[in-house]
Amino acid sequence: MSPRRRLALRNAALATFGALSFYACAPTADASEGVNGESAAPSADRGPASTLAKRGTHASGITYRYPRDWELQARGGGVLVPNDAPRDEQGASERYLVLGFPCADAASDLVLALFGAESPFELEGAPERLGSAQRFRYRASDPRGELVADAYVAIDDGVAHCLVGSGPRAALEARAPLARAVFESFECSAPERDPRVVGSWFHGRSYASERRMTFEADGTFVESSPSDGSTKTGTWYAADDDLTLVPLDGASRTLTYQFVDDALVTLDANGARTLWE
Predict the structure, then answer these.
(1) CA separation for the pair 225, 228 (Å, rounded)
(2) Which residues of 104-124 are buried (b: 16+ CB within 10 A; e: fewer)?
(3) What tens digit of pLDDT does each residue of 134-154 get?
(4) N or C: which end of the chain has fewer CB within 10 A?
């Protein structure tokens, strides 16, 4: 895997995968302990595939099914939380993320691609073959006990399609058959791209703050700042008011967007509003 492709893969994944970095340092409930010390271990799953009663979509083109008693959270249609997941004051400590990002190479170095060189997560054992897909198990230690992550990965036509679960080891192992059923329900199509976003957009009231964004119909974008000569290129998706930017050599991000008259208005995760004309 080339250094440039590895960096692009890592940044694309980390855009949606920030939750795992949080779990690596935040207090996390033990798999057998609920908010008030009550049992919160996952219930036995009944015939995994037959319980997938809900349907979700991801802007990268993934359509999937998930259990009736799981909650779909976060933007971009990609964070799933079982209702009986172990919880503490920080919320659920077990969750599953749907990811799709450009990847031309085989999934042989996902420990670096997903978590970064300085992450506390490391690969545990050899990947498990699941037909044309693979399952990678990662582990990390935190003050309250060992955390693990399972990454189910398939690469098709230059795009990696993933389901990544994170949480206490016992919780993930108990839920593994159901997680695999969710992953095997993936149906992949062309990414969603709102045609209204296509075009060139300008922001800034002075030369120092000027920024330009150009979104092409083929899914590529160019972001430039004339004041410092910087330029970023990458891939974009847009659906359900979420605009996801996946640059080749920088941190990816998802913005909320809307149109006001003829202007494009974006809102980042911190609530900062940007007007593009």
Answers:
(1) 6
(2) eeebebbbbbbbbeebbbebe
(3) 898 888 866 655 788 899 988
(4) C
Sign of the CA dihedral running 127, 20, 69, 78: negative
Closest-CA residue to 179 (of 192, 164, 195, 191): 164
In tens, the pLDDT along 199-235 reads 999 988 776 678 899 999 988 899 988 877 888 888 8
For the record, the structure tokens of 123 come out as 């690969």
Q: Where are the domains of the chain?
A: 3-188, 195-276
Secondary structure (DSSP) of 33-84: --TTS---PPPPPSSGGGG--EEEE-TTSEEEEE-TTEEEESGGG-EEEETT
Cα separation, 201 vs 184, in Å, equals 39
Exposed e or buried b for every residue in 61-74, given b needs 16+ CB within 10 A?
Answer: bbebbbbeebeeee
Q: Which residues pair with 171 in a beta bridge?
A: none
CATH superfamily of 195-276: Uncharacterised protein PF14869 family, DUF4488 (2.40.128.490)
